[in-house]
Batch of 3 targets.
Target 1
Amino acid sequence: MDLTSIGVKFISQFDLYKGQNSTVSQLASFPGRIVIGPGGAAPNEETELLRILYIHNPWWTTGRVPDAKAPAFKRRDYYGLVETLETPEITAVVGARRVGKTTLMYQLVEYIVGKVGPSRVMYISLDDPYLKITAESLKTIFELYGKYVLREPLSELRKPVYFLLDEVQSLKGWDLVLKRWFDLGYNVKFYVSGSSSVNILTGGAESLVGRLNPQIVFPMKFLETLRFHMKEEDFERRFNDVNWSLRRALEKAIRDGDAVSLYSSLRENSNFMAKDLDRIILYLQEYLLKGGYPEVVDTQDPLRASEILRNYLNLTIYKDIVRTFKIRDPEAFESLISVLAKECCQRLNYSELARALDLKRQTLKAYLYYLKTTFLVSESEYYTESRVKRARRERKVYINDPGMRNTAVGALNEYLLSNTLELGKVVEAVVTDHCRRLKLDLDPASGTQIFYWRNHGYEVDI
């Protein structure tokens, strides 16, 4: 087909779209988006889809993942994802917005490219506004990949291929789409990512039961920020040894009911880190101020860090929560976040809080649930074996990341470090968050629930 024919065909399609004669100004406004109809993609649409897929997957051409997409520093979560490559289940990478899920996906792609070659892995961002992915177009993309990139039908694969679908919650009915593909039994390993546990874990729980393996990604732990800042090999080795020694001591102390042995281990291991202690304290203060979101960890200016986190918070509120759950009063929702940040680690009476915010108690509980599903907040319940008593007692609410908490109350500055009352709240929240992660790591089946206890003037925070 010559260029004239192509031009005539394009203008004809444009006329059909507009339902009137075309002009230059009308042609300029023709929407450049790909929408696949029920009959699949036309030849020119297939070409455009492939072009975009090559943009999403530059390693098909270059043989390598760009350094900017897959930085050299690897978080612990990366090694956990590598271990899932041989498992058949769909691996769901979930966590708060901008916590590093996409970076982990690209680092996993880099590993796969090095292991089995660039053509056997495909990455797609499902929130790409140009692609406008639908269940039908995703099917077309899979077929085009097999035909023109892999050059092997997916139904006849002898060696596995890997499909990584980022921001999967953008595709309506994504769980049913993946269920159909999973049940076909093709030699395809799926990875999906998203920012809401409602859309990924809860939404896909019923249709993907027994097929979905969640991997929750949190902001960086304090230990990870130390690894990031202190990259010297000797420090990595020494700190890793101390970390695992204390972990074994904690497990033993819990198992034997012997807190004294844990205290002795803490004192002994602190000596191994004596020469690094001053730097560790400085980085701890920085962590208590800025928290563990990857972009913020690499940002030195507190004002810039606060701007980044404020942007994250606004995107989470308005894109992940208000839009998804159709909240009618966003201002009341923002006020709730401010109150929770100010009263972080305090026991809250939900009835009193609802009255203060002029909300119904059930609306307040719904708002808290939304915040938990986006990994912004968590709760600590009163410890008792009676579920009835537990439900009646006040709960503690935490903003999970210290930088996010400080941003919400306008306190991301060094003054916080001299304000013992406010600093105490941040420290308790950080320790609670790390205990929650440790519990999940040691006993994944038990979940992340943390408790506090108080009786006759005595109290245990965690």
Target 2
Amino acid sequence: MLASLNHPNIAAIYGLEEADGIRALVLELVEGETLAERLTRGPVPVTDALTIARQIADALGAAHEKRIVHRDLKPANVKIRPDGAVKVLDFGLAKAGGDDPTPDSQVSTMAGTRAGIILGTMAYMSPEQARGQSVDKRTDIWAFGSVLFEMLTGRTAFARDTASDTIAGILEREPDWTALPGSSSARIRDLLRRCLQKDPSQRLHDIADARIDIEGEGDPTDRQPSIAVLPFANMSADPDNEYFSDGLAEEVINLLAHIPGLKVIARTSAFAFKDKHEDIRRIAGVLDVTNILQGSVRKAGNRIRVTAQLIAAGDGSHLWSDRYDRELADVFAIQDEIAEAIAKAQVTLADKPAAPLSMMYVAGVQPAHEAVPLARVHAQKALELDPSLLEAHALLGLLAAMYDYDWTEADRRFRLAFARDPVPPLFVRIERANFFLAHVGRGREAVEEMERALAEDPLNVPETT
């Protein structure tokens, strides 16, 4: 029966072998990483998650048509090939009779004999499966919902520290729906709720319905743009500057609210997260927005610096950022100027693709051998969109120095970065001093550059210094 499963999204089953009394399935060797391995790097962007989910639904649909229930669907049993194709693996627990509920005694026995191994699988069991009751294809639908929830949030829906707590979560508790990213639509949220109904009779009846919902979703990036402006952080030593930080955020909210087609979250809702160190994606999920604007205010003497970052709710990447250095002569004029600039930037982003400023973080989230070529691609793409982007030139200079030992190219790139801003960000000056000047025998110049940077740019000294 299992060998009859022939589908592009199911790893082929070639037969059953027996040796020394041990039975084993002969399966297709699928290249690529498992979904579980992918999830170690965090949530999957909504568009990618839905692409993966659609292929999983196709695989389950093909199995269910042959009255086969997988019963062990989980991220570790989903492979993602380098070309993006998805393969569902390990039908070793599968049983025939997709619409004919029968007691799931095999799972109960496994849970008893392999408690250390089954705990990971247990997190994806349906309530009826966890109780050892009769199961049918709706058990796979529950697991599908659990996997999709984990892709979108980066966390399991029900897993706890112990087997008993996990079972209790499955039987009695709801997932943390607020963990879903703001870029996930109402249609997908509703799909998840229907997949994860504890009563099988109330659950989504057929996996084909899930596929219809996903296909009907279209491109999740097409949803109405929306934004929440969080309170700007007061980075000054004087707590009295808090009024300026809050007033600036309020003024930005007021101006953004006048942009047609842009949904802006009210001040009272956004300010509920004041002084709370929550993950941006979680905040976006609670407020149901596609973008988050956050910033900080730092005052030194009669000068003030405001930084602002526009962040995509789906993956937490930076879409846009800027800083504003002004004399503190007229507080209200400064608020108006900065709020108008941010509002204009939001309109611009709605009209054209933003430069991938998140390239600056690539090396921190990828293994080194993967980060370098990927960082180069992002930096070069950023320069195609915005040739004046000094951060891109600085990143290419850093890579030329650290990985290519191409000192001529490194010098050229850092010069281009400095040409675009007489006082570039402190991190750019640090990188040039540490990774270029110090390595080409210009140690004294490196020290002088560091001292000069700290003297000229005191508002941007890293928090760890």
Target 3
Amino acid sequence: FSHTLGYTGLISDAEYKNLRDQNYWLNDFIGKSGIEQSYENYLRGVNGNKQVEVDSKGNAIKEIGIVEPEPGNIVELSIDAGLQRKIYEDFTKSSVGNKGAAVAMNPKTGEILALVSVPGFNNNLFAPGIKNEDYQKMLTDKNLPLFNRAIAGIYPPGSVIKPVGAAAVLQEGVVTKDTIIVDRGVIVIPNQFNPAITYNFVGWKRDGLGPMDVRSAISESSDIYFYIVSGGHPSSPIKGIGAEKLAEYYERFGMGKLTGIDIAGEKPARIATPTWKANYYTNDAIMAKWYLGDTYHISIGQGDMLATPLQVTAWTAAVANDGVLNKPRLLKQVLDQNRQTIFTPEAEVFINAGIDMEHMRVVQAGMRDNVTSEKGSGRSLQSLPITAAGKTGTSQFDGSDPKKTHAWYTAYAPYENPEIAITVLVEAGGEGHAAAVPIVKNALQWWAENRMGK
């Protein structure tokens, strides 16, 4: 819980200068990160003090009055402690990676149910004032235990992006739910200046997946399908949606911007576009040019695309909730010491993708097929006592070694009436179905047994 709850520390000189008018003292402890920082104004109580009259030597001679201390308010979070512990335990037991993140949220409300970053740290070390040796140990740890991967870790999302791309091409009429594209495992692109030079763009299954419609392209994760519907191909009548329009839909689903979650440190990640690339490579005309291959890469969540686990969960929750999602938040309510509600956050819409319901149903069905189909990478979830829909992702992150991949799985359940959306990322974990799916499955099993319908 440490990344979420945060920690307190002795007020700094700069903090004291800004807060002394609010009755802070030089020896006060103040929220430094997480919920402790975000809701410091509610959590902080009132310091007690004794007012006395003193003589010329500073000796107390008369008590004038006493100001009794007052405890702070109660900040109630949406985090489900049982679910949080279950996910963290499964992560630490994983044999394929000891670094990663998981986020679970309620698709209907945007309330965060779990926010896990691995490895964690002991925030109790900060309470009395952390020893320098302990702090330096955390700072120099190569696994970065203080880093909140759930909201600040930015990674290539890989194929977990495909449901959003599918919604985009359906909405724009690039394809219908019945359009068939044959996945032969590779497409060949001729050089625009010298057709004798060709470039191969391969799918994850090199001998091909065969005929694909949009549902099967989601469930079986056809790279070839998404290459063509996004960028087109000289031999195909499908022109493709194009990089700019695809990026527009990515933004509609919350990519490339802050969700506004109520703890500090969130990163916006990145949508790669022709404009972004031109600006990034200002001094290199060749690198600044946008190629068809760039469009292919962003269609499968690779190239220069980056996302946080929170963002992936947000767009998955939006798919589950018919294209709409409230701003993710941790705060449920603030209570006084008599447990009377004194503040409840107002719901704010974060995603309103504007996708027709008929198209959303197709995308949802494709994610459901990922679980129910014998060819789906999430088929191990069939044994759950809860209906689920999902999408794997296996994203390359090291250009010098394409075998190094992050493992993703994002899902929601129950399929018919979603209560939970969850994303797991295992850093350098290999294949999504092998590393991330088991953690998601165990979390949904726990949810079905302990929370579903309750």
